[in-house]
Amino acid sequence: MRYFEYFVGPQHVGVTGNMSYHLWADGDEIKKMITSVGYLHRGFEKLMEYREWVKNVPMVPRICVPEPDVNEVLYAMGVEELSGLVPSERAQYIRVLVLEMARLSAFLFYFAGAAGALGLYTIPQWTIGDRDYILDRFEELTGGRAYHIYTTPGGVRRDLPDGFKSRVQETMNYLKKRLIDYDRLMFENAIIVKRTKGIGIIEKDYAMNMGVTGPNLRASGIKADVRKDDHYLVYDKLDFDVPVVGDGDIFSRIMQRRLEFDESIKIIEQVLEMMPDGGFIEKLPNPIEWKVPAGDVYVKLESSKGEFGYYIVSNGEEKPYRIHVRGPSYTHGIQVAQEKIVGMRIADVAPFLFSLDVCPPDIER
Amino acid sequence: MSLDVEESIKQDIDLRLKDIAKCEIQRERRLKLYTGKDRVIPVLGFLKSYGFIHLAAISCVDWLDDGEFEIVYNLWSYRDKAGILVKTRISRENPEIDTAIPIYEIAETYEREIHEMFGVNFPGNPNLTSLFLEDWNGPPPMRKDFDTRKYAAEKYGMRDLTEQLKIGMDKIKGVRDGDEIL
Amino acid sequence: MGIFKKIFTPLDALKHLGQKPHTIRVPYVKKEPAKRYRGIHVNDWDKCIGCGNCARICTCQAIEMIPIDSIKVEEGKTNLRPQVDYGRCSFCGQCVDVCPTGSLKLSTEYLMTSTNKDDYIFIPPKDRDSGEGTGWESSTETSMLRFDREEMPERNPDERKLDFEPVLLGFSEQQAYLESMRCLGCGLCVDGCPTHMFIPEYIQKIRDAEYNGAVDEFFKNNPLPQICGTVCTHNCEDNCVYSRRGNPIQIRYLKGFAAEKVDNYGDVIKVDPDNKIDKKVAVIGAGPAGLTLAFYLRKYGVQVKIFESTPNAEGMMRYGIPRYRLSEKTLKKETDFILSTGAEIQYSTEIGKDIPLKNLLDEYDAVFIGVGFQQGIPMGVPGEDAIGVLQAADFLRDVAMGKKVEIGNKAIIVGGGDVAMDASRTALRLGAKSVIMYRRRWVDMPAHEEEKLEAKDEGVEIMPQTLPTEIVKDENGKVKSVKYVKTKMVDQGEGKRPKPVPIEDEIYEMECSAVIQAIGQNPDYSLFPDDIKEKLQFDKRGKRIIVDDYGETLIPGLFAGGDCVNNRGDIVGAIADARKAARGAQRGRGRASP
Amino acid sequence: MAIIIKILEYILIAFGVAILGLIYGGIGRKITARIQNRYGPPFYQNILDVLKLFGKRNEASHGVMFDLGPVIALTGILTSLMFLPLGSSTPLISFEGDIFVLFYLLVVSPLGMALGAGEGANPNATIGIARGLTMMLGYELVLFVSIIPLMIHYDTASFYKLVQMQGTFPNWNFFPFFLSAFAGLIALQGMMGLQPFDVVVAPHEIASGPMVEYSGRFLGLLQLWHAIAVIVETGIIADAFLGNGGAGWFILKTFSLFMIVIMVAAIFPRFRIGQAVKFYWKYPLIIGLLGFLVLFIWR
Amino acid sequence: MGLFKFSRSRSLWMMHFCTGCGAIEMPPTMTSRYDMERFGIIPMATPRQSDLLLVTGYLTVKTLKRVVRSYEQMAEPKYVIAFGSCTMRGGMYWDSYNTVKELDLYIPVDIYINGCMPRPEAIIDAFIKLRDMIDKGEANAWKNYRDNLDWYKQNQAKVFDINKWSAKI
After folding, report:
1. Cβ contact, residue pair D267, C22, below 8 Å
2. Which chains touch D (3 or more CB pairs under 8 A)?
């Protein structure tokens, strides 16, 4: 039988970025979907092969726009591991701080997207407005709002400004206060629960086999977190939980982020307290003509969307030989979404994709 | 830092895949495994049954000078908390390697990308259509012999300032009189 | 009840209806960007030296160096200024982090909207700057550049002052690597080097541990790399971009390091000693100028004969510089190599006395004079004829020749140049106490800073703003003490060096057993017969011979170089002169090619 | 002559109502903005929007029906305005049974939209129409159920009479018939197409639904339709439950109702279409039916 | 006519099309902290209803096709604001094989905003500039597109196979 064909995106409110879907529906029920990506393909992996190691530092954050710091830290970690450079303890704490702040801002974005997809337009206005306070802190620390270009191989580019810690704490207090508002309006909202419970279930085994990672995997009931399993930076010194919601539906994915939000605030507060003194950067011998010893390394970390990984190959020259970026949305943004969307209603497409937190730029690079 | 887990994984792999794969420990929680092109699927099959459930990525490295592509399967075991890179090399002339879909379903998209970006063929993958590029008429762009600067300059008319930079830098470098003048 | 509550909890949001919104009412209310914000570039044109590092680091190729005619080109400074294309710029601030001078920074301004995209290309001026501490700027700490150098290992001062073994221990390979890695390859240093060595190129080779290649680069315009690598006056380092805010790259020591790594230059530099063309050049004085000339002429097969008045080659390098700075081994290695290229040398032959200059002029196609300054200048105070009052040049020469020099237990050295430092430290090594008297301030002392510090470390007492007025003799006619006064500095107006004026009120006296005068040297032109001397042209003070661009004097075929031509008074200056002269001879000026 | 004056008066009223509706919309946007912690647009913003839309060049047309759709929608709502008593004033047309006509006419506008948008052949529009018509099944029923007790109580099917007999405060129908009024309010939410019942336009799901292909003047007509519909729809509830009164009171009442609707819209997400209709057939319908009980008890 | 112009400049509906990374600064601009609805600017879901196209950064060839098509669907008068460096001369992606470098070769641009990314303040600044331009009648890039359609089509055809493309629609 012929199905009703329906295109979503790239120019559409209901897409999680610049991507599109081709839907075949029988009445209101989706029978088939094909994800189309490539609207943001800039060929980063190719461009990075053309640039010296340090010149890639401004390049990498563009890979994942809502949470750019992940890329910077990963790239720096990979290069450091290849070259044997060890950043100072303080730099590592600052990196954790930056990563967690970025996670918070990405989660706020996520809440906005998820609520917006469900038609609750007050939440985006709030969360993105409040995210701006985190961006203010970022701007103070890194000099940039969206792209921080702050972490560089060897450490971080600048030290904390005066009084920064207390201002971060203030922001955290503010967010904690606002979380109560969010809870009441969004996470306890009966209609949200009704719309999202039991829909778009990704089963545990399926998620694991399909390479789903991060909060989506935990929402399906598997306790796996790169921060705990493959501890990098100073995460092993910090005390935090890995919440697992476990139902695998849209609601549990939203709640998963909500619970992890609390944990991130906890981590930031610990980091502020535990941050040691010391240098913030081990300078590279030469910024432009530095050569990294030959070798290859796979580094990964836990982003707000899941496992972000960099596979870096060096052949001992001034430029990387090959960098492969493993974006977390790669798996759930294409194959998982395509398969799991079958049988869903048209109205649930946007909430489902927003709940998966599909970020096209990190799929396409 | 003890490497007990890694050692035991290595032992098990060495025992089971003695003839077809070579395993080494890279560092804590990271192993590497080299195998031949024809052995990849059985090796992956064993590793998945061993606990490496998560296929994080499949990468491809173009070793132009060797005339080979290196396919790297990036696996992770949630149980052992260790990752393993499975590497194999295929010839650049006729790049072809069996698909990993029977073992890892998610490989479909990864292979699709490698097919598009490197022109590697994966017999058995039903969906090797273009992923990122549309109406692409150049060679596979991630190959080392594809020059993106030249291509961009020709297609989009954007000038490459590398030459200008060189001239500028020569200007800065000032007086040079080596003995060739003598 | 739970469901009932769930329906009504969202109503809580209505409380915001009465609250003041947190909207920033841009553009009516301005929100200041953070202090570190990365906005549009500003560039202090005066501070900027046009090194082009910003253009090289730019990952977007947004920066081009544009020559600006209104800017004067100075040594170590070009008239190029960065032009930024905001159609490319990604505001990463890496250009700021590699700016060695700190002139380039990103201001906190970011507003720029235009209908024309060509408006977005311009040369950043300074006027947009909102002041210190705002915008993205780099300090020596936050810059990507490592302004701290790798310290050259030295022997302990207490230990080294007891003997004449070399003070410097030399870089380790790791140190040399790190130090050479600092080089950005901008090449501004080349302007500072009189002989224009290929500095970025050889530093690159040193970084890659290709020492042979580095030596090859050295010999393109300097045949004495290891000597220069140890005691050069390193003007290049003054021009190094790092010197603007920190320690320059130790180009000198890197060169020395690489030269030392190659035991036999002959493996790298192929000069056939038997290749002799039908041209003969005589060289008077086997100092740096003479040796350089000999090398470059030999390279092209010209027959060279060097006439040296002392029994050893190397001239002032041997007799002016003490062995603890420049070891015998180094000297021998370099001169042996040059002599191995087929240059002949005749020791202990003084031109003017043993052989008249006229003969040489007749016999050879060209004659090169590289005699240097040998005679010390007397101070002109009463009591200078006392026993124990020495000239530093003589003193150093005698020590170098191994003669026994009696200076007693306390020597006063007068002067503040490198020679004074050498003399004081030599005196120290002979077992005496050394005191340096200098009439100007510490900062005015012409000696190199590191020399001064080394002397001080070893225990030389340095008395700036001190002027000896009289040398007191004892009954045997020997030096007993020195009477001196303190001076004060009198400003001479803008652009002029302040002048020391003695404070006559109080006269001090210091006991001593020797006085070494190191206030300058004069040339000894006794080798010129009068008729030749008349034809030559000297500078105003009558010290230096005027030569043309090819080192040739007014007499065809008579070339000169070294101290008697330039006023640098250093080795590398002599080398540069000699190369000029070699080029002159090669180009066929004078009688070398009639 | 009288009829001409009446028509002129009607045109004036229609114009005024449109302006009023636009200003309501603007204030509604401001109120929403306040809940969302921001200032929002000026209150006259919607007027500017409509003016702008009328100033645009129309690009594409997808056929006669496509162009006529907005006209039918606007005509439908303008006709229903004729039957609506604006407070205590007499509507243009009033007769026994006009409530049924009014309710019938309310359906004309969405149908006009449906006809027009259907011609646009945009899948979003098609889905939007399907949803809109389904949605109507939900709220129209509830609206009827909430009004019927009043009709029974006053024994009339004329809206004007119903309002007149109701009297002023505190004799509002709201107090005795609060269950029906509540059901009516919920129906109003759906009629206005606001959250949680904004399934018809649902930007995240189907762009903006039926309006997706409309631009320029036609979109302006639709905006006007919306503006008048705001008054008509809140007016029905205000007239039915909040007593009569002068034009000023009418404005106040409709405005208050509109504000309630807007505030509820700001704090709820949207239902899925199935859920929305199911919801209407469940809670508000039950509440509305319970309203009948009041009738019997009160009598 | 003046009233129409006035309302036109104060009621700019922008198309909700996040083409590049510049889209990341759009939500803050649209939401409570900067609230551009104050100027009557709201996102619209479809090109038919929009007046303003924001090209928020680089455009890949694949996106450019959609952008051109969306732009052509917009009712006149329509305006284009280009965000950041990438739209002017390629920005960071000046040597990428898949992004176009100079946007104004393919669609006309009214205003460029400096930055990578432009801050919300800069975006609002551009909106206000555009508003003034409309008031003065200077924002006429759309007329330019109509007048020089052939030139634009030619340039577009250089980047993608225009025949193949138009056959698809």
Report:
1. no
2. A, C, E
Give the whole-angstrom CA distance, residue D125 versus residue A6: 11
Instruction: Report the residue of chain C nearest B177, measured CA to CA.
Output: C196
pLDDT by residue (tens digit) across D226-250? 888 888 888 888 888 887 777 788 8
Domain residue ranges in chain C: 34-145, 170-264, 280-373+550-587, 377-521
Chain B contact set for A47 (CB, 8 A)? 148
CATH of domain C34-145: 3.30.70.3270
CATH hierarchy code of domain C280-373+550-587: 3.50.50.60
Q: Contacts of residue D127 in chain A, CB cutoff 8 Å?
A: 6, 28, 346
Cβ distance E118 to C92 under 8 Å? Answer: no
Q: Distance (Å, rounded) from C-alpha A42 to C-alpha A60? A: 12
Taking contacts as CB-CB distances below 8 angstroms, the residues of chain C near D38 are 21-23
Assign a CATH topology to domain C377-521. Answer: FAD/NAD(P)-binding domain (3.50.50)
Task: Look at B182 and C78 and tell me if their CB atoms are within 8 Å.
Answer: no
From residue C546, give the alpha-carbon distance in Å to each of A89, C554, C561, C565, E71.
63, 8, 10, 6, 76
Nearest chain B Cα to A40, which residue? B132
Pick C360 or E166 by higher pLDDT: C360
Please, what are the domains in chain A? Answer: 4-363 (1.10.645.10)
Contact predicate B115/B101, CB 8 Å:
no
Task: Please report the pLDDT score of residue C594 as a whole number.
Answer: 33
Quick check: C114 contacting E, CB < 8 Å?
A: yes
Instruction: Evaluate if residue E37 carries a pLDDT over 70.
Output: yes
Q: Do chains D and E touch (3 or more CB pairs under 8 A)?
A: yes
Residues 6+ apart with CB under 8 A from A80: A86, A87, A153, A154
Distance CA B148, CA D41 (A): 47
* Number of structural domains chain D divides into: 1
Q: Mean pLDDT for each 10-residue chunk of chain C (594 residues)? A: 70 81 83 85 85 85 83 80 86 87 85 83 80 81 84 83 82 86 82 82 86 85 85 84 85 86 83 81 85 84 84 80 84 85 84 82 82 79 81 85 82 85 86 85 83 85 85 83 85 78 82 85 80 80 79 81 80 83 68 39
B171/C51 Cα distance (integer angstroms) = 10
Q: Where are the domains of chain B?
A: 4-134, 147-182
CB A347 within 8 A of CB D199: yes
Contacts of E61 in chain B (CB under 8 A): 134-135
Residue range C449-498, pLDDT digits in tens: 888 888 888 888 888 888 888 888 888 888 888 888 888 888 877 777 78
Domain boundaries, chain E: 3-162
- Decide if D268 and C10 are in contact by the 8 Å CB cutoff: yes
Contacting subunits of A (3+ beta carbon pairs below 8 A):
B, C, D, E
Q: Has domain E3-162 been given CATH number 3.40.50.12280?
A: yes
Which CATH number among 3.40.50.1440, 1.10.1060.10, 1.10.3210.10, 3.40.718.10 corresponds to the domain C170-264?
1.10.1060.10
- Does domain B4-134 match CATH 3.40.50.1980? no
| Interchain CB contacts (distance < 8 Å): A and D | 86
Q: What is the DSSP letter of C126?
A: S
The reply to whether residue E161 touches residue B135, judged by beta carbons under 8 angstroms, is: yes
* ipTM of this predicted structure: 0.84
